Amino acid sequence: MAKLVKIDKDDAGNEIEEVKEVKDNDNFDLIDRAEELGVAFGCQDGRCGSCRVEVVEGMENLTERTQNELDAGLMEDEPFRLMCQCKIKQGLVKVRV
Q1: Do the beta carbons of residue 7 and residue 17 sit within 8 Å?
Q2: Tell me, what DSSP letter sits at residue 95?
Q3: pTM of the model
Q4: What's the pLDDT tens digit per position in 44-88?
Q5: Helices vs strands, H then E, count in the chain
Q6: Disulfide: which of 3, 74, 84, 88 matches 69 by Cβ 3.0-4.6 Å?
């Protein structure tokens, strides 16, 4: 099982992490777990951009960017992904929502 971690800050400014286990290479499970972490989803096909997150760690553990992400203006060298368009291949991915 892969892990999706949401990084946030508490009221005192301390970094906190919330962890969800995700089935490897399963986009539907990733969407469910990401929603539980507070990621908003609209269209789920990469057009609306509502599920855009900043990948803080583990970009190499995600599948390649899709054409929909590139069409939405997400560049290869940016730390952002659309959660509806990727899968966690293995390991750990940390995101900011």
Answers
A1: yes
A2: E
A3: 0.93
A4: 999 999 999 999 999 999 999 999 999 999 999 999 999 999 999
A5: 2, 5
A6: 74
